[in-house]
């Protein structure tokens, strides 16, 4: 699996290519988290967003499908005592309905064959009144974004879609989410954080 193969250099590559966005996305996501929150994070990767969430929340369950990413996350997050790191499939989560105050799925929607199903799973496990927080890289400059995507694809990444701001909004609208807050973290490849209140 691609994500297992690149897990040991993922933080380095992201920092070199897109440092401001890589560092600031987690900070922005954490601004939606409260100290009493029990949070689920799907596709946690190496824990870049997780470390920011953990400083704010009561408890965090950080999950990923790739074993390599989970190994890196355990290394990067070993100083935190309020995190449980688990393997999970975003498309079929083994958590009870309405188990979490907030759910986060960072930079994964564009990789999924059926992202609409993932949204429904996130909605299922978040409590009524809770928030679904979905940061996703978006394209602002076509040339820059296409070059970056091609490089990742050469190494085996499988992007199912690429979003710009307009198509990202339309994606949520098509899935029935009309009241979504959007915040963009600017950088070489910006990240748009979509926030849905259930």
Automatic annotation (TrEMBL):
Residues passing through the membrane, by range: none
UniProt keyword Ligase present: no
Gene Ontology biological-process entries: methylation
Superkingdom assignment: Bacteria
Cross-referenced Pfam families: Methyltransf_11 (PF08241)
InterPro entries in alphabetical order: Methyltransf_11 (IPR013216), SAM-dependent_MTases_sf (IPR029063)
GO-annotated molecular function: S-adenosylmethionine-dependent methyltransferase activity
All residue ranges annotated as the Methyltransferase type domain in the record: 40-134
UniProt entry keywords in alphabetical sequence: Methyltransferase, Transferase
Name this polypeptide is given: Class I SAM-dependent methyltransferase
Lineage: Bacteria, Bacillati, Bacillota, Clostridia, Lachnospirales
